[in-house]
Amino acid sequence: MEINKKELVETLTKGRNSAKKLQNLLRQKVKDDGLVSVDDLVKEISQSFYGCLSVLNSCNSGEISRVPVSAHLNSACSGDQTPEVYSGNTGKNITPALAQKGRRGCYKRRKTIDSRVEVSKTVEDGYAWRKYGQKDILNSNSPRCYFRCTHKQAHGCKALKQVQMLEDGSNKFHIICFGQHTCPPPNVGLDLDGNHSENDNLLNSPSTITRNHIDPSLKQEDLSNKVSSPALVWKEIFLNEFECFKNVGSLCDISFDDIVFS
DNA sequence: TACATTTGACCCGA
DNA sequence: TCGGGTCAAATGTA
Asked: According to the lineage, what is the superkingdom (predicted)?
């Protein structure tokens, strides 16, 4: 496949710089002055990453580890691609007890085409997630955990996430994301220049997914692996993104240094 | 007290 | 029919 590597690097760089602008905006509590809005920056960031993913997806070799399905550039930030989840009414009779309690498990099965799949060493992504279920999966020793955005109530955010530990000994997680976040972006306290932040609410957030949520037995081990600074969190996120791109054969000759940080 | 997690029940769809 | 996704009561935690 032929991929415009320069375009990918430029798009990633643009996204990264936009994130930095957003950080400065939010940190200084600058109100929308008409020059550039927070919403615009968030949109720009999302477009940058989705743009890269779309390029990769369009050249899908079958070896891609991160697959943004139905996520092309123009629709990625529309916020309306969140799948319809709950049917609420199937027309079937329900027992009085159920009618009184409200129906449970009433939903439309998610279509995988509305999902984004990734394999990552970390489960943290900066967003606050609330675990709403866990299931043992057939022929799998690792349970699958189900998360929804903590801000579902406050902001009506419909983002969902499924996390399951891989059984290949790689200590990585298979993550499936559904829908787009409509809540404010994650931690703005991250210092993109590698400095410590005054507002480190990412690591302190009780709702941030950790390995403990997937496998409580990792609790002790996880302490030693805990990221020590916001800057490292950011770097880790970026390296993870980059690792995804590197998994595509023709991109292997791009180094992380090719992404110019301003 | 408020919010998060656990866990069994319930339902859909393959 | 059964595996998987979600609900919601019970429980835990700060």
From this structure: Eukaryota
